[in-house]
Amino acid sequence: MAAALRGAGGRFRWRIRAAAAAAAAAAGGVRGAARRAAGRQNYDLLVIGGGSGGLACAKEAAQLGKKVAVVDYVEPSPRGTRWGLGGTCVNVGCIPKKLMHQAALLGGMVRDAPHYGWALQPVPHDWTTMAEAVQNHVKSLNWGHRVQLQDRKVTYFNIKASFVDAHTVCGVSKGGKETLLSAEHIVIATGGRPRYPTHIEGALEYGITSDDLFWLKESPGKTLVVGASYVALECAGFLTGLGLDTTVMIRSIPLRGFDQQMSSLVTEYMASQGTRFLRGCTPSRVQRLPDGQLQVTWEDPSSGKEDTGTFNTVLWAIGRIPETRSLNLEKAGVHTSPTSQKILVDARETTSVPHIYAIGDVAEGRPELTPTAIMAGKLLAQRLCGQSSDVMDYENVPTTVFTPLEYGCVGLSEEEAVARHGEEHVELSQAPQKPGFKYSPPKEDCLLSVLSQLAVALGWPLRVP
């Protein structure tokens, strides 16, 4: 090369070679782009996210005649936990939570049974038996979703997707293989994941979240639940009900956003059942001791000093963050909230890009509830297929908190009503009731038989004389 630069002739030869190399590179780039374009798969609708809302949208659109693909990929939790198709609700949310809640309620029924004439012997709970039953049920639901997609001719890709442009995404498989997909319409339904307090020493290394709890093979043992959300209280409730020493650390108020009078009833009942509460405390450090236990240090405002406790498990339940960071939304022109990082949408679930939509937990201002995501997905598919103009009504959506004292609500809380209408315009009425019990004699011991079978499946090895 140095010789080629000497003299006019050398410079001329160098320019020829450089031009030839540039032309060859350009030709190669064109051929590469052509190959990529040829390998691109095109769809009427592409759904990113295989949770409840995304699957509902995809199946509805396919049933209405559209060519549909679903892209879903589960990034393992920091503890390495991963799961199958179906999203949070199926794998690490509503389904396993309700089953473990039911297991805890069964324990209470077993303890109450002698008072109703059933001579049952007290038995300890077997976490391993329950976990296996719950996890096998979840896996059957994973398979069921795969079958449903296949039956409706929806193409499923187990790849991690990110936008290339407003109509194209690039998906990368676990093995690193890339797949280009393009669609006329794209729906983002990636949901969210639990938040870790990364500013706390040892939080990421030693703590777990709800992403891990439901897939533990062995009992979590003595557990500290950090947080005051419904996830925190639900998990703490069933852990206590299963006989585990459980403490909840609350920084401010429990069940923020719910009616606080009802919230107090929930936490008071939990305390009466054995759950301990550390109020106003914030953890500052988690360390692993030589014996494997976790030592948690926290600030106690009542004493103004630090305090410590030892636990087998620390469960973080301090909120969730949307799965938007790896989507390269800026390449598609999709706007997000600067505070929540959720995707901004209008009443028709449309983002800042007219043919890109967002539904479920990833969308700003939407309730983080499975039924609303499912209905929003179905209605969106119907609008895209010209079958309906209906939009999702997010007002007055009922919800239930599956704490030991179950709490259902709909509409405004008292606090929200006062804030919206003024205290002078809000009338509050109360009708406290204690639930009664309707007794029907069991026929041929069938009640005990069903109870026994369900209890054994959920880890209570009953012995009936």
Task: Offer a few descriptive terms.
465 residues, alpha/beta, 7-stranded mixed β-sheet, 4-stranded parallel β-sheet, 18 strands, globular
Record the SSE blueprint.
Blueprint: H1 7-39, E1 41-48, H2 52-63, E2 68-71, H3 87-92, H4 94-112, H5 127-151, E3 155-157, E4 160-165, E5 168-172, E6 178-188, E7 192-194, H6 203-206, H7 210-213, E8 223-226, H8 230-241, E9 246-250, H9 260-272, E10 276-279, E11 282-288, E12 294-300, E13 305-311, E14 313-316, E15 320-322, H10 329-332, E16 356-358, H11 370-384, E17 399-401, E18 407-409, H12 414-421, H13 446-457
Parallel strand pairs: 1-2, 1-6, 2-3, 6-16, 8-9, 8-14, 9-10
Antiparallel strand pairs: 4-5, 5-6, 7-15, 11-12, 12-13, 17-18
Helix pairs in contact: 2-11, 4-5, 4-8
